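Reviewer comment 2.1 asked that we show a complete input and output for one of the modelled complexes. We chose the adenosine-5'-triphosphate case, as it is the one discussed in the main text.
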Amino acid sequence: MFEAFYELSRSPFSRDVPPSELYESEILEETLGRLEYAAERQWFAVVTGDCGTGKTTTIRRFTEELDPAKFKVLYLSDSKLTPRQFYKGLLEQLGCESKFYRGDAKRQLHREIELMRGIHGLQPVVVVDEAHLLDREMLEEVRFLLNFKRMRRAPWRSSS
Ligand SMILES: Nc1ncnc2c1ncn2[C@@H]1O[C@H](COP(=O)(O)OP(=O)(O)OP(=O)(O)O)[C@@H](O)[C@H]1O
Ligand SMILES: [Mg+2]
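Response of the prediction step:
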């Protein structure tokens, strides 16, 4: 009803605003630029902001704008995420059935990402929304994702 009164074509602040129709604030542009910079370099980036200030919406826009020929976006949003669910969730989005044990699933994910990079030339972009609710163990797991190249090449790791 208020939409008609204010001559709005749709309800404002709905969750499904198309990314192309967002209000283009300076901060949105700046955040998108920084996220792209981080994705290009496969870095770790954290988006912070008060409740309802547009973090998820910014990520939605960011993932929409990424070149699908260069990047594969893996998105998770679960406040109760455990390390096992984390690897399972990412593997599912890569079209794989996760191994049961966490260590196996972790190695499986690293292998899949290597294949995706090597064969399809795609870089992964892992987005964990609501990450402030994750416990420390889970956050460490996210951090370890960035080490996987080093882990793979580590001389003390067996090749089996
Ligand atoms: N740039 C924008 N232009 C128009 N609407 C926006 C913009 N950014 C956010 N919104 C609107 O504001 C609402 C809240 O945004 P969003 O859910 O992204 O915030 P949030 O920071 O992720 O919130 P929370 O802290 O609860 O997770 C959304 O429904 C969205 O429609
Ligand atoms: Mg949000």
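The longest helix spans residues 102-120. We note this here for comparison with the apo prediction described in Section 3.2.
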